[in-house]
TrEMBL record:
Entry keyword set: Repressor, Ribonucleoprotein, Ribosomal protein, RNA-binding, rRNA-binding, Translation regulation, tRNA-binding
Domain of life assignment: Bacteria
This protein's GO CC annotations: large ribosomal subunit
GO molecular function, one term: structural constituent of ribosome
Pfam families: Ribosomal_L1
Family under the similarity heading: Belongs to the universal ribosomal protein uL1 family.
Name of this protein: Large ribosomal subunit protein uL1
Amino acid sequence: MKHGKKYRAAAEKYDLTKKYSVDSACNMVKDMKVASFDETVEAHISLKLDKSASVRDTLVFPNQFRGEKKVLVFCHEDRVKEALDAGAAYAGSDEYIEKVKGGWLDFDVAVATPDMMKDVGRLGMVLGRKGLMPNPKTGTVTTDITNAINELKKGRTEYRADKGGVIHIAVGKSSMDAAKVAENVNVLLAEVAKKSPNGVTAGFIQSVSLSSTMGPGVWVDMKEGE
């Protein structure tokens, strides 16, 4: 892939064949910012996973960097007021199922009560493609609507490994203090390390790199965090 002058100039600032501590990597990514907009800092975590295994969970970063999420709650009429009072942008059943079927997706995350999943499951082709399908593993299929919304408002974020066993997730913004981005990265790595399907953490995280949206990637030395 051919990169522009700004990218090449940024990449020449450091030896990007080496690995660096999380703190150093975050400072480097911030320093190598290329675009004029506030770039997102992303972590790319390669895991040692069997083909049949998967990793999917949520966490709340200590330092938030995203705007407030619009939450849609699929629930029956008797729980609509509870959902709206808790901070949901939208709440209801059939009317929102029909809207989503028609392509409406003006929300960031969907929550559903268990008794709604039979109907919500029919939206798999729409919600699944966008990563918006409620799931018990991520706390978005629940009877405790209020707690689920509160957690999402705090910035609860889902992460998952793709088919290649790699987690791609935003961990901050280039405008943030590098130490705060580093704190987010360390919390993420600690959480992911606990998700080894066979319980063996040694070698589970094979490699970690950080980059801004448009900038070069920096390899993280996992031994620095031990």
